[in-house]
Design goal:
Elements lengths: L8 E7 L6 E6 L8 H16 L9 H13 L5 H17 L3 H17 L3 H17 L3 H18 L2 H17 L3 H17 L3 H18 L2 H17 L3 H18 L2 H17 L3 H15 L5 H17 L3 H17 L3 H17 L3 H136 L5 H6 L1 H27 L6 E4 H11 L1 H6 L3 E4 L6 E4 L1 H17 L6 E8 L3 E8 L6 H7 L22 H11 L4 E6 L3 E9 L10
Parallel strand pairs: 4-6
Antiparallel strand pairs: 1-2, 3-5, 6-7, 7-9, 8-9
Helix pairs in contact: 1-2, 2-3, 2-4, 3-4, 4-5, 4-6, 5-6, 6-7, 6-8, 7-8, 7-17, 8-9, 8-10, 9-10, 10-11, 10-12, 11-12, 12-13, 12-14, 13-14, 14-15, 14-16, 15-16, 16-17, 17-19, 19-24, 20-22, 22-24
């Protein structure tokens, strides 16, 4: 059995034609997008709070609306409460002459009787509600009730009347341009054809439904369609298509907690596995549906569920459980006078008792099955012809109306064409003017952007030229002199003007010059690369005390020449998150500077202090210190100038060491500064981020 889609969601602020009264009309959404349980509890709380007010009146329209809302939410969960609330809402709405409340409560009383198989009583309530909606001009409510009435004819097996009602409702939905209701009615027509095994016709209507659902973009509507489509593909033996659609629908129903449709989707998935003869998985999904049905009151849905479980247990050769479920389904079918359900269950029970070798009982069920099959077969043949005839008559009537409309409009086409031509010409002129204006604006923006790019590039080129000038100046001043002196000395030695002994006496000076050249070149390469190419900083977790120790070892000979003691007080396991090469260059330059400006018998001390998320590293010397003017110059931002001085032993410097240090510390997320007093010494500080959360604190 396919699940009929209903238009069951209320909307507000819709007026009756000519009355100005708020109408509760019905919008085509199967379910709310939040938990059904939460919605019921929310409504109960609102009703209780309203009833506790001192000014409360049972004729308050807001109160009546809440009664009907709660009754709707309880349809598949607590039908007795639905009936009680609908009766209460009907009485008070009638006393208050509140037509919207009357219409909705009458409809819900029809739902109550429909779910119990009392179709004649359900039709009475539906028709009363539709008459009232028609009198007050509520087209949306009329559409919903016409859909309900057509569904009731379908339950009775009168497919011709059902199709006629659906087609009328579809025409109204098209006139109202209501895409969601068009989707629902088209799907109900598709299900009607599917129940008569007209699968090709059913799929044609499902194509329309899919296009409508895509336009609407409502996930729940799409899921309801996919679950019905999965059942259709299952009957057609296209089991892969069936599985694809049911899986997608289950995802959506689980996401929005639409429990009644989720139970149907689980049952459909069990049906697909059953047709694959995969009884274990069929049982799993049927049981998932059964668990949900424990909190639902939907007898029609239980019939197919229990019969499917019975067929599954037959496949698993568990005749006892198969009998229980088949008899439960048979009992429910008889209680709601559902002939199709009785026929299906009779067939299942016949198979069970035949397997048990209880041939008398098996024969009784077989005779009942045969009797119902013959009756339904004859009725279906007759009704199928009526179904096609009704559709044909409807299409013919529609074509006649279309031809009449075309004749009526023929005389107006000339005026329409002339007006359309004039309108198109006006639109063309407006478009050309607009396009010209937009083109002009775009060209203006492009020119401004290009001008900005040129100005930026001009500034960059100027900085690059200044950097190159600076590099050549340093090379000429600080490298050409020592290299030239070395060259001249070697030339003199080559010419025989000095002996080997005299050359050896120059070795300490040559060693000092070479060391200076090497140190200067190293700084120049590092600094020039950052200036011209923008070197990449690659931070990682490093041990600071290790890098400090390596640099102390590297510069130890320089310190010993001046009898300077270098002491490292950096704690063990001082982890920083920085580029190891750049930190190495910074430490080497700062220690070298400290040695340069510290006189003999001095001391250079390295230390590190841990803060919340960074380390403060310091290099303190007992050197000559700096005055205020020098302090202002050493970290200046102007990259075109450098500040270089001679050390206590006339050591030379390039003037770029501190500039390079500043750049690299900033690239690693830190800051650098200096404290100094003349004749007392200087302390350079810089910060580096900790390798947070990865290593233990320093010891």
């Amino acid at each position: 059995m396919y699940r009929i889609r209903l238009m069951l969601r209320k909307i507000r602020n819709t007026k009756f034609v000519g009355t100005g009264v708020l109408l509760w009309c019905l919008l085509g959404m199967g379910h709310v997008v939040h938990s059904q349980f939460d919605r019921k509890e929310e409504l109960k709380t609102k009703l209780r709070l309203m009833e506790e007010r001192s000014s409360f009146s049972v004729q308050d329209t807001a109160y009546l609306d809440l009664l009907n809302d709660l009754a709707f939410e309880l349809r598949y969960f607590d039908t007795d409460s639905l009936y009680s609330l609908a009766k209460k809402a009907l009485k008070h709405s009638t006393d208050a002459n509140y037509a919207p409340g009357q219409s909705i409560s009458l409809k819900q009383l029809g739902d109550y009787h429909s779910d119990r198989g009392v179709t004649d009583t359900a039709l009475i309530y539906y028709r009363k509600a539709m008459d009232l909606a028609s009198q007050n001009g509520s087209v949306a409510l009329e559409l919903s009730l016409l859909n309900d009435i057509s569904g009731e004819f379908e339950y009775q097996g009168d497919y011709a009347k059902a199709l006629g009602g659906y087609l009328k409702a579809l025409e109204m939905a098209i006139e109202q341009e209501d895409l969601l209701q068009q989707s629902i009615i088209n799907e109900n027509i598709a299900n009607l054809y599917a129940s008569q095994n007209y699968y090709d016709e059913s799929l044609e209507y499902y194509k329309k439904v899919k296009r409508l659902n895509d336009s609407i973009g409502n996930e729940i509507a799409q899921a309801e369609t996919m679950s019905n489509l999965a059942s259709l593909y299952g009957d057609m033996k296209k089991l892969e298509y069936a599985m694809f659609n049911v899986n997608r629908s289950i995802d959506i129903f689980e996401k929005y907690r639409i429990m009644d449709w989720l139970a149907y989707a689980y049952e459909t998935k069990g049906k697909v596995y059953l047709k694959k003869y995969n009884y274990n998985w069929a049982l799993y999904w049927y049981r998932q549906s059964e668990m949900l049905h424990q909190n639902l009151e939907d007898d029609r849905a239980r019939i197919d569920l229990y019969n499917g479980l019975a067929e599954t247990y037959i496949g698993l050769e568990n005749d006892s459980l198969a009998t229980n479920y088949a008899e439960d389904a048979f009992r429910i079918s008889k209680s709601i006078n559902f002939a199709e359900g009785i026929k299906k269950c009779s067939k299942t029970l016949y198979e069970i008792y035949r397997r048990k070798q209880d041939y008398a009982t098996a024969l009784a069920y077989h005779e009942l099955f045969q009797e119902l099959s013959d009756t339904l077969s004859r009725n279906e043949n007759r009704q199928s012809l009526s179904l096609l005839q009704t559709k044909t008559e409807y299409e013919q009537q529609k074509e006649t109306l279309i031809r009449d409309n075309e004749k009526a409009l023929a005389s107006q086409k000339r005026y329409l064409y002339a007006g359309s031509g004039l309108l198109l010409f006006s639109i063309l002129i407006i478009y050309l003017v607009y396009r010209s204006k937009k083109l002009q604006q775009r060209l203006t923006r492009e020119l401004e952007a290009k001008h900005e790019i040129l100005e930026k590039r001009k500034a960059e080129l100027q900085v690059e030229n200044e950097t190159k000038v600076k590099l050549f100046s340093i090379i000429g001043h600080d490298l050409r002199g020592p290299v030239g002196a070395l060259k001249e000395l070697l030339q003199i030695f080559k010419d025989g003007e000095i002996s080997i002994t005299e050359l050896a006496s120059y070795m300490p000076k040559l060693r000092s010059d070479v060391d200076h050249i090497f140190f200067t070149l190293n700084n120049l390469v590092s600094w020039g690369y950052t200036q011209l190419n923008g070197s990449t900083t690659r931070p990682t977790s490093i041990l600071l005390e290790g890098i400090a120790a390596e640099n102390i070892k590297l510069l130890n000979e320089v310190a010993e020449n001046k009898s300077i003691k270098i002491v490292s007080e950096i704690p063990e396991n001082t982890q920083v998150w920085s580029d190891p090469n750049q930190v190495d260059i910074v430490l080497r330059n700062l220690i070298s500077n400290a040695l340069k400006f510290t006189p003999e018998n001095g001391m250079v001390t390295l230390s590190a202090e841990e803060k919340n998320d960074y380390w403060i590293i310091s290099i303190r010397d007992t050197g000559v210190g700096m005055d205020r003017l020098t302090l202002q110059k050493i970290f200046q931002e102007d990259t075109t100038t450098t500040h270089s001085t001679y050390g206590t032993a006339n050591e030379k410097g390039t003037g770029i060491g501190l500039s390079l240090c500043k750049e690299m510390i900033k690239k690693n997320g830190g800051e650098i500064w200096v404290d100094s007093l003349l004749r007392k010494g200087s302390t350079f500080y810089f910060t580096l981020p900790k390798a947070a959360g990865l290593y233990s604190k320093a010891v």
